[in-house]
Structure formats: structure tokens, C-alpha cells
Write a structure and sequence with these properties.
heterodimer; B: seven-stranded mixed beta sheet; five-stranded mixed beta sheet; binds flavin-adenine dinucleotide
Chain lengths: 290, 769
């Protein structure tokens, strides 16, 4: 492990000015659950870490009318334990519950999961279908980026080296909206996704939807929205398991996975279909109710 | 009839529990010495290569570097290996696997040592790679060792195999594959070497047999073994992976070279790449059965992926050959086993020692037969069960306690098995979730087998406080022998267990008790302790006699006192007896107990170590749930009925059953070190997948089957291996019961299960047309 400078920020302004001072040479560390692994593997090119874990104003969940704000240092455990999230964003809760182990969820933050930009990051597909926005700030300016536009590739985001995430903004799920998150991994915990999927549907009538969002993870260089499937869910009457399977099979046209140590590309493609199908089928069997 | 005991057969808390959970215990990796250096090993870049040149001058010039060593610095024999010492301590010219040690550095800090390692220049010439045991044995295969790639060939023929197959009503023939399991002990190979004030070289590295380490080290270092002290306890897990030497010879060389204490603790990655794994097997099985379900013939061909060096690969093959037909009566057999060198890392000892591989194959065969003939799985096994007095498939007569029928009868009564039909259904709400209950049976030899020196030893000291210290060379690496030894001494000496201290694994202090392996720890150390204790009782009676004004023959003892038979109030405490020794100016007595392990009365020709004489038996049941959309398998519940003779510690027994079942679960469903063209692909716990608590069943029932073995300490045998061995086939048989899909390969990862589900579905669709 290489030697590295370590600086601790006491508030947002402090963090931002350190960031703009060091530029490309610095990296933010929040919970450290991704950074420390990479540090040990000697793949961190920056030589300074700016620790923001002590910045209290960047931690917490609050509601503003029907908008939920999750601040970036909110841990996965905080999210799982939040009644607001449980009530209004159950898809996110399920996604976050599948991350790592209690130890990892106690330390790992949502901001870190977003910024780390792993194609297999579990909160990300949920944030996609929930139409989340990420508020990004530098010392000079501030901007809102849709999560759909946040990623450029594996490990790559639109963040500039002097920017950091300061807020995650998500609208409440509506009453008639339902959904799920599902992942397949190599075991039941501490398991990186071989494939994952988040789905949100707005029920408009019998077996019909007025809105459909489907996002897959670990199946392409970034998390992706499955447009063909979304269109099919919007335009078809989803009144039988056969129909759901037919729609789910469209995933083969949406994903472009790789083969790695965790799973082959062909298995991943089949899983994209089957976990989507399994989730849709379960909702169908429940009468498309929450 | 049950004798009243104070400790044997009870639930006794581990004596080392508190120091372990509080972290107070100091493992060797925790030790620090003033002025200590750090060691680092440079390992080969290629899986198969010749070394053309090694240049160390740049590394030596780094400030803070105290020594850089290569093969030229090995003063003695540059090789180690328990069975055949063919593995170089530091490689001279021929590299045979990617983790092979080429050079080593001792420096002021780990970082400096690492930096210096990077500055050692090694010129290699790459050689073609041998990456599986079948190719390894082909005539034109690149030679890994001078004599070719055959490490060992063991063949056993009995009866008339052709006639047997002719008489069979059914022949089942399949090929099976097993994975390369990693021991995954918590503490990686680590420790410190230093030179004592009297010049003794002290090696403190957790291992399974200090006296053998001492001899192997003496040979490498070319020094008198008496000048080497090996302390091998405490050790943070071993499971067979610390039976062979690991870092010890290099640590010793660095210390001798620098004269300073040197410490080394391997990273998980280095540990996984460099040292032992469970041998992957490829096995062809052909089984012939008559109409009644009797096995009449069995042909087995085994290919063992030995990896680059011998270590214990030969004995592993032979144990596999011995157990290849399971605990069944088979008259006509042909077992043909090959251990072949490859460039796939190194494999060695691992809990079960060849038996988990063949048990997976054999018990899948039995499940297939049971279904094809419509005979209940337990009945089929009872029809064929080996019993006391029977001749085993390899030709020796079983004369010790045999529990085949007893474990089957016990498991038949367990809740999971009784309810197996109602449990083996699909989920009514999620019909793609399918559940099933499966069974498997196995047995496992206790001890090393014929032809190998196999003995137990223990020293017992009476302390001034009237308590006892028992000193045994085996180590407790989690299995609980420390507590078992204390129970055995307390029971025999009839004193409170709190009065017994246990010293383990130290060549300077403890008796040579052989290796802590082969399920032999309790048997050997326990029995030797009893012998030492009985002698101690006699010595103490002799001292008590004048104090009690009686002849030694009239003295009885209990609860820490010696007293007159029939007159318990005329007594002296053990402490008073100890003080009497001191008052008389005599040293406190230390007794020693030694014995030779009973062995079978015949030797199997051309099969070193075979047969074994004493066996433990176990029947395992697993209840699984398979998601047929993804291939994900959960083991919901498990049960094991285990005949280990008499149970010494109920708590230890349960711990072994639960731990063994979970290790077997990992072997069945997820564990496999993947090596591609000699390169390791999953070298830490991010990608080498072992079960987490969320993958373990919510209940594992442990059913002790008490089947006394007269030769054992308090009639015990050893259970530490058998408890994990039959779990994998119990799980894969349960997957079959749930889904109708046979698995011929472990680990049965979700991807493999899914692939097989689809293959079977396609076969069915094909037949339908
Ligand atoms: C054993 C283990 C298991 C894991 N399992 C899972 C899993 O199942 N699913 C999963 O998705 N992940 C998993 N992870 C990955 C990791 O825990 C998560 O991605 C976590 O959310 C990262 O958060 P952190 O606060 O620890 O990030 P850090 O490690 O502190 O940072 C991660 C990255 O985000 C950047 N960053 C952090 N905060 C900000 C910010 N506010 N603004 C801009 N950039 C920022 C950092 O610079 C860094 O590049 C696992 C990790 C481990 C070690």
C-alpha cells in the first residue's frame, strides 16, 4: 500500500476548497469501503485523500413536501432504518438492503455508492427508476444532474475533479406506483451482483401501466435503462405469465455484459430476463399491488 | 449400562474460549520482538519456466535491507515435502508453479522489504504449461519433473470385475469433477523466527506438527535438530493447510543470515497463491448392481490434479482409493488412481484427505441407483453396508467398531428424513422455487494407516498446587482438542478440570504425538494422556501411602484427594502430595505415556498407508431450496448422524458437526480456486466465495451415535473429517430431489445449476418430440 496524504474536512466549504486546491491529485473518502480496497490494490492514482466523513451537514434524510433528500454521507444502514424511505421509496430500501453485510452497510454511504460508479453498484438501478437527481457542487458552482446522465463508463462519472455530491433528490413514489429490486450473486450476503434489476410501474388499470421504468446493473459498462422493455410494459396488457416472460426476454436486446470471474456473459443475459420475469411475476400474482 | 463420568460426554465449555473471544490470546502473527526485521518472499512470475539468472545486487543496496537470499543461501538440502521432499525452499533453476519462492528479503520494514523484492532481477525462460491431470499423463506432455508427470499410480483389483458386470442388472456409469477448495483459515501463514540466548533457533509459526517441522527444517538448514525449537501453537485455523511446511524454512534462513528476529505474515492473496489446496479430482465411476440392489462390481478411475509438488498428494490419492467404494461391501473391484503433476499451484492435505472427492461421486452413484431400482436410499445403503467382520472393497477385514448401520438407523429417525416427502415440493406461491431432501453416507479412517509410524505421546506433570499440566505435541486449531485433553486428564486423575493445564505444540516442552491430522488428535493424545495419568496415579499413591499410613494398594482417589478405601475421611489432597515431593527434596513427578496406534493385520500391496484400521461413520441429510429461474440454491436445514465412538465433549461434537456441515456446504456450492493457464483468478475473499452466516442453514441437527471403540481413549474415535465429507453429495442429491437435475460437478454454483437445469429441460423437450 502506498503512502498517502490524509486531510480531514470539517464542513462542506472546507471540503470544496481543499478539492479545488488539490484538483486532480485529491480524492474524497467517505465511508472508505471502496477506497480502502482500491488503496490496498494500489490502483489509486491520487496522492491525497480528503476525508468528509466528519461533515455532519452532509448526513441525513429529510422530506420537503413530496421530495426526499438523502444527503451523501447517509449510510446504507441509515437508509434501511428510515421510516420515510420505507414508506415512500421501498425499491431503494430493498436495493440498499442487498449491499454487503451489516459492517459494510454501517460504513458505506449512498454518496460513495453513486460516485464509485461500479456497473454493479446496487443502489444505482433503484435510483434510475426512481428518477433521482444528484446535486453536485464545486467552490464555483452548483448543478443538478439526472442520475440517468451521471455515468460515462465503468468508474467514470460527469463529476469534475473539484466537484462533489452534496445531495440526492428523489420524488416520493406515488400511491399507484409499485416496484421491486432483485439481484443474483454468488451467495446470500457480501455478494457483488452478477446481474441486478430495479423496476417501477405506475398502475393505470387492469394489468396496464401508465409509466414503466426498468434499470439493469452489472449487464453493461454502466447501469442502463431498458427502453424496449419499458415500452412493452406500457403498451401491452400484462395479463399472463407468458406475456411477462415474453416481455422479459426483450432484455437480450438491451444488455451487453462481459464474462468475468463471477459469471459468464451468457448466464448474465439469461439472468437479466429471469430476474425481471421473477419480479414481474411476483407482482402479477399479488394483483399488481404493493 | 452407563458409567458415571464427571467430564467425558458432557457439555464442557472450551477452556480457550475467553482468551479467544477477548482477543487476549497471542497468535504467532501477533508477536513482536525488539529490533525485529520483516521478511518478504519474491515469487515466480510464471507458472512454468526456467530461471536463467538471478541478480540481487540492486535489492541488497537498498537502505534498510539486511539480507537478500536465494537458493545459494540454503545451507542444507534445498527441498521439503512430507512424503517426498521435492519442493525447493528457494528455486534454483526450474519453476513449476506461479507461487514458487525464488528469493527473499529481510528488511527494517515491510515496505522496504517489498521495494527490495521488486528490485531483484530474475531472467526466466517460459516453458509450456500443463494445466490438467489427464493431459499431464499424455506421452508428449511437457515434463514438470525429471521423471515425468506421474506422482503416483495406485491400482487395486479384487474379484472378477468382468463377471461382476455381466451379473449386474443395472450398470451406472458417470464422470465426476470436484473443485479446488481453499482452507480459508482466519490466520494466514505467519510468525516470527529468532535466535535464543543459548543459540537455539526458535521458529514460531502455527502448524500441525512441530516435531516434523523441526526435522524438515534441520534438513534444509543443515543443523542439528536439537538446535531448533518449533512452537506451533496457538494457530488460527489449519484444516490440513498447515500440515506441510509453509514459510518456516525461509523465515529460518533469514534469521540465521541476519542474526535478528524476522517476522512474516502473508497477505490473503499470497497465501492463496502460494500454498496448499484440496486436490481437484476427475473420476470415472462404473457401478454394477443386481436386481436386489447389491453392488456386484465397481470400476473407478481417478485423476488427481496434484499441482506442482508432491507434499501429501500420494497419500491423498491412496486414501481416496481406499474410500472410493464408500462403506459398502463390494466383491469385484478395480480402482485405478493417478496423481499427476500440473502447473496448477500446489495441493496438499485438507480435511477429508481425498475422501470428500470420491464420496461426492460414490454417493451420487448410490442416489442414481436408488432411483433407477426404486429402492429407498437408506434401504439401498443398508443392503450394502459394511459391518464388523466384513471385508472392505480393498480387501481388509473390519475388526474395530463399525457404525454403518447405526448411523443409517439414526438418520432415518431424524425429523428431516421422516418428513422428506412433504418437504420435497415446490413452493405453492412461487412454483419456480423447488425444495428437496437428500442423503449421503461416508466413513473416514482415524490415523495414518499401515506402514507409517503412527503413535501417541503425552507428558504429565504434577504441579506444586496439586494440579496437572499435560504436554502434547499436537495443536488445537479450532477443533477443540485442548479441552478434550483436559477432560480426559481430569476424568482419569479425578480432579476438577480447572486444575488441568494443557501445553501444546512445542518441541521443547511437549511429547511427540504425531501430526494433528487424520482425525487422530483426540485418539492419540487422549490415549497417551491416560497412560501417563495412570502412571502418575501410581507415583502419587506411593507418596500418599506413608502419609495415610497404609499400603498403596489400599488407596483410592477422587475429587483431588487420595484416601483410604472405604474411609474417605482419611485423606490427603493432591496438593499435599505435591508438597511432600518438595519437602522430601524430590522433583515434582512428570510421567510420560506413549503407545503405538493399532493397525490392520494386512498391508495392501502397492498402496502405501493402506488399509486403515479404525473408522468413523456418518450419514448426512440436507434440505435445499432451488430457484429454477436462477440456479441459486439455499440449504435450509441439515442433519448429521455421526459415529465417532464415545463422544468426549458434547459441545465440541456439535461444533464439529455444524462447522463440518458448513465447510461441506461451501465445497458443494461455491468454493473453487480457479486457475487458468497456471494463473490464479480468485485470490481473495472478494472472489473466492465461502459461505457467510446468511448462507448457512438455520438449523443443523447433530445426532451422536454412540458406538464404543474399545481401543480408544474412553472408547472414542475421531470425527473431525467425516463431519464435512458427506455434506456435498447430500446437498447435490437434495438438488436432484428438488429439480430432477443431476449434478456431476462441484461446486454447484448458481450458474452451473442453471446450466444443468436447462440441459435437462432440453433433453426432456427432445425426448418429447
Ligand atoms: C466487503 C464489501 C462488500 C460490498 N458489497 C457491495 C454490494 O453488495 N453492493 C454494492 O453496491 N457495493 C458493495 N460494496 C462497495 C461499497 O461498500 C459501496 O459502494 C459503498 O456505498 C461505498 O461508500 P463509501 O462511503 O464507503 O465510499 P468510499 O470508499 O469512501 O468512496 C467511494 C468513491 O466515491 C467517492 N465519493 C464518496 N463520497 C463522495 C461524494 N460525496 N462526492 C463525490 N465523490 C464521493 C470517493 O472519492 C470514491 O471514489 C462492497 C464493499 C465491500 C468492501
Amino acid at each position: 500500500m502506498k503512502e498517502i496524504n490524509y486531510l480531514s474536512a470539517s464542513n462542506t466549504e472546507d471540503a470544496l476548497s481543499l478539492l479545488s486546491g488539490f484538483g486532480e491529485n485529491a480524492k474524497i473518502i467517505a465511508g472508505g469501503t471502496d477506497i480502502l480496497v482500491r488503496l490496498k490494490d494500489n490502483v489509486i492514482k491520487e496522492d491525497t485523500l480528503i476525508d468528509i466523513s466528519g461533515v455532519r451537514e452532509l448526513k441525513g434524510i429529510y422530506e420537503d413536501k413530496d421530495i426526499i433528500h438523502i444527503l451523501p454521507l447517509t449510510t446504507h444502514t441509515d437508509i434501511i432504518e428510515s421510516p420515510v424511505i420505507c414508506k415512500h421509496l421501498p425499491i431503494l430500501r430493498d436495493a440498499v438492503k442487498s449491499i454487503g453485510s451489516p459492517q459494510i452497510r454501517n460504513r458505506g454511504t449512498i454518496g460513495g455508492n453513486i460516485a464509485n460508479a461500479s456497473p454493479a453498484g446496487d443502489s444505482i438501478p433503484a435510483l434510475y427508476v426512481l428518477s433521482a437527481y444528484v446535486r453536485v457542487k464545486s467552490r464555483e458552482k452548483e448543478r443538478m444532474v439526472s442520475i440517468n446522465e451521471f455515468y460515462k463508463g465503468p468508474g467514470q462519472t460527469v463529476l469534475d475533479s473539484n466537484e462533489m455530491i452534496v445531495d440526492i433528490v428523489i420524488p416520493h413514489m406515488k400511491e399507484q406506483e409499485i416496484g421491486f429490486f432483485r439481484k443474483v450473486g454468488q451467495r446470500n450476503a457480501i455478494s457483488i451482483a452478477i446481474a441486478n434489476v430495479a423496476v417501477k410501474l405506475e398502475v393505470s388499470g387492469e394489468n396496464r401501466f401508465s409509466n414503466a421504468s426498468v434499470a439493469f446493473g452489472a449487464l453493461a459498462p454502466t447501469v442502463l435503462r431498458a427502453k424496449l422493455i419499458e415500452n412493452a410494459l406500457l403498451n401491452e396488457v400484462c395479463d399472463s405469465p407468458e406475456k411477462l416472460l415474453y416481455i422479459s426476454k426483450l432484455s437480450e436486446r438491451e444488455v451487453s455484459p462481459i464474462t468475468d470471474i463471477r459469471g459468464s456473459a451468457s448466464y448474465r443475459i439469461e439472468m437479466s430476463t429471469n430476474i425481471l420475469y421473477e419480479g414481474l411475476l411476483l407482482m402479477f400474482l399479488k394483483g399488481w399491488k404493493r | 449400562m452407563k458409567e458415571k463420568t464427571n467430564y467425558i460426554g458432557h457439555k464442557v465449555n472450551r477452556l480457550d474460549a475467553i482468551e479467544k473471544v477477548t482477543g487476549e490470546i497471542k497468535y504467532m502473527s501477533d508477536l513482536y520482538f525488539p529490533d525485529m526485521l520483516y521478511g518478504k518472499i519474491l515469487r515466480s512470475k510464471y507458472p512454468h519456466a526456467l530461471i536463467r539468472r538471478i541478480e540481487t545486487s540492486k535489492a541488497k543496496a537498498v537502505e534498510g535491507v539486511h539480507a537478500v537470499i536465494t537458493w545459494e543461501d540454503v545451507p542444507g538440502f534445498n527441498g521439503f515435502g512430507i512424503a517426498t521432499p521435492d519442493q525447493p525452499v528457494l528455486s534454483k533453476d526450474h519453476i513449476r508453479y506461479i507461487g514458487e519462492a525464488v528469493a527473499a528479503v529481510a528488511a527494517k520494514s515491510e515496505e522496504i522489504a517489498e521495494k527490495a523484492c521488486a528490485l531483484i532481477e530474475v531472467e526466466y525462460e517460459e516453458l509450456p504449461i500443463v494445466d490438467n491431470p489427464i493431459d499431464a499423463l499424455k506421452e508428449n506432455a511437457p515434463k514438470i519433473h525429471e521423471n515425468g508427470n506421474l506422482c503416483l499410480h495406485t491400482e487395486i483389483k479384487r474379484g472378477n470385475i468382468e463377471k461382476g458386470f455381466q451379473e449386474s442388472a443395472l450398470i451406472v456409469e458417470n464422470t465426476y469433477y470436484t473443485g479446488r477448495q481453499e482452507h480459508a483459515f482466519l490466520e494466514t501463514e505467519g510468525g516470527v523466527a529468532h535466535i535464543d540466548t543459548d543459540g537455539t533457533l526458535v521458529i514460531q509459526v502455527g502448524s500441525q506438527y512441530p516435531q516434523r517441522d523441526q526435522l524438515q527444517l534441520a534438513r534444509c538448514l543443515g543443523i542439528n535438530p536439537q538446535k531448533i525449537r518449533v512452537i506451533s501453537y496457538p494457530v488460527g485455523g489449519a484444516f490440513g493447510g498447515k500440515d506441510e511446511l509453509t514459510i518456516q524454512p525461509i523465515l529460518a534462513l533469514l534469521t540465521l543470515k541476519t542474526g535478528k528476529p524476522v517476522k512474516m505474515v502473508l497477505s490473503r492473496e499470497e497465501s492463496i497463491i502460494s500454498y496448499w489446496k484440496r486436490h481437484p479430482f476427475i473420476m470415472h465411476y462404473k457401478t454394477g448392481i443386481d436386481k436386489e440392489g447389491k453392488i456386484v462390481a465397481q470400476e473407478v478411475k481417478i485423476y488427481e490434479d496434484k499441482g506442482a509438488y508432491s507434499s501429501l498428494g500420494g497419500p491423498v490419492l491412496n486414501l481416496a482409493v481406499e474410500h472410493a467404494c464408500g462403506p459398502y461391501r463390494v466383491e469385484n473391484v478395480h480402482i485405478d488412481g493417478y496423481a499427476a503433476f500440473t502447473n496448477n499451484g500446489v495441493c496438499g492435505a485438507f480435511r477429508g484427505f481425498g475422501v470428500p472427492q470420491v464420496t461426492f461421486a460414490m454417493e451420487t452413484q448410490m442416489d442414481i441407483i436408488s432411483e433407477k431400482l426404486g429402492i429407498d436410499p437408506i434401504r439401498l445403503r443398508k443392503i450394502n453396508a459394511l459391518q464388523k467382520g466384513d471385508t472392505t472393497p480393498i480387501g481388509n477385514k473390519l475388526t474395530t467398531s463399525v457404525g454403518t448401520l447405526k448411523v443409517l438407523e439414526s438418520i432415518e429417525e431424524c425429523n428431516l428424513w421422516k418428513r422428506r416427502n412433504e418437504l420435497s415440493t415446490q413452493d405453492p406461491k412461487k412454483p419456480w422455487i423447488k425444495r428437496g431432501v437428500g442423503l449421503a453416507l461416508t466413513y473416514q479412517g482415524t490415523g495414518l494407516g499401515v506402514g507409517l509410524p503412527d503413535y501417541g505421546g503425552a507428558k504429565l506433570e504434577l504441579r506444586e498446587d496439586g494440579g496437572f499440566t499435560v504436554k502434547i505435541g499436537t495443536v488445537d486449531y479450532g477443533q477443540g482438542i485442548l479441552t478434550a485433553y483436559a477432560q480426559i486428564v481430569a476424568e482419569t486423575m479425578r480432579c476438577p478440570i480447572e486444575k488441568v493445564k494443557v501445553t501444546l505444540g512445542d518441541t521443547a516442552l511437549t511429547a511427540d504425538c504425531g501430526p494433528t491430522s487424520a482425525s487422530r488428535g483426540v485418539y492419540t493424545g487422549g490415549k497417551a494422556s491416560i497412560i501417563a495419568a495412570e502412571e502418575m496415579i501410581q507415583l502419587m499413591k506411593n507418596v500418599a501411602a506413608p502419609l495415610l499410613q497404609a499400603s498403596a494398594d489400599f488407596i483410592d482417589y477422587d475429587n483431588g484427594f487420595m484416601f483410604l478405601k472405604g474411609e474417605p475421611l482419611r485423606k490427603v489432597s493432591y496438593k499435599e502430595i505435591a508438597n511432600k515431593f518438595i519437602d522430601d527434596g524430590k522433583p515434582l513427578p512428570e510421567t510420560e505415556g506413549y503407545f503405538l496406534m493399532p493397525i490392520a493385520d494386512i498391508e495392501i500391496k502397492n498402496a502405501f498407508g493402506l488399509p486403515h484400521h479404525i473408522f468413523a461413520f456418518s450419514a448426512h441429510v440436507a434440505y435445499v431450496e432451488v430457484n429454477t429461474l436462477t440456479g441459486e440454491t439455499r440449504v435450509l436445514q441439515g442433519a448429521e448422524a455421526v459415529d465417532g465412538g464415545v463422544v468426549i465433549n458434547k459441545q465440541g461434537y456439535e461444533g464439529q458437526v455444524e462447522g463440518g456441515f458448513v465447510m461441506g456446504l461451501g465445497y458443494a456450492l461455491m468454493e473453487d480456486v480457479i486457475i487458468d493457464r497456471g494463473q490464479f483468478k480468485n485470490v481473495n475473499f472478494s472472489t473466492y466465495i465461502i459461505p457467510t452466516v446468511k448462507d448457512t442453514p438455520f438449523h443443523i441437527e447433530s445426532i451422536p451415535v454412540i458406538n464404543p471403540e474399545d481401543t480408544g481413549p474412553f472408547k472414542a474415535k475421531g470425527i473431525a473429517e467425516t463431519v464435512m465429507v458427506a455434506t456435498a453429495p447430500a446437498i447435490t442429491n437434495a438438488i436432484y430431489r428438488a429439480t430432477g437435475t443431476r449434478l456431476y460437478r462441484i461446486p454447484a454454483t448458481p450458474e452451473y445449476v442453471y446450466k444443468r437445469l436447462k440441459e435437462v429441460e432440453n433433453e426432456k423437450a427432445h425426448k418429447g418430440h
